[in-house]
Amino acid sequence: MPFEVPPLPYDYAALEPHIDEQTMRLHHDKHHQGYVDKLNAALAGTEHEGRSIDDIIANLDSIPEDKRTAVRNHGGGHLNHSRFWEWMSPDGGGDPSGESASAIESAFGSMDDFRKKFEEAGVNRFGSGWVWLVSDGSSLSVTSTANQDSPLSDGQVPILGNDVWEHAYYLKYQNRRPEYLAAWWNVVDWDKVAELYAKG
Fold this sequence. Notes:
The chain is mainly alpha-helical.
């Protein structure tokens, strides 16, 4: 079964004014579709077609070397974006609660300190990539990856991630990545973060 772009769980304009409608349309319908198309082409006719994307990205060494770079880039793009849409909500923002909130405060000192560290990692990611809150099974940390690499490939579980490729923000924020990172907290779905923390 070929991979497919999941539908957005909200309207394209639902994250306004923080994430604009045109960016959401291009990001979801064009960029994410492009990753899926190229991932499917790379895996077509191989034994890996039926595997889950999480399994593939967590075990990239199992992919033949001649296809690995394409699968890493486009499979990572598909996985990262599939989660990204779920990490945002028109009802998002505010602060987390429960166990995930306690874990974040324990790891970073406070929510403000966590946000500061997360934003700094996003600002300092050179070129294209992602910034993440990850779990290694015992503790939380902030990290960033280049291009469409996923923390899953390093044995870490992504609890929250933000896309800092220019296509995620340039129409609205131009070169003001720090402004985009700060505004993004207004749409973060902390319920999804809590769900992934409980699993991770």
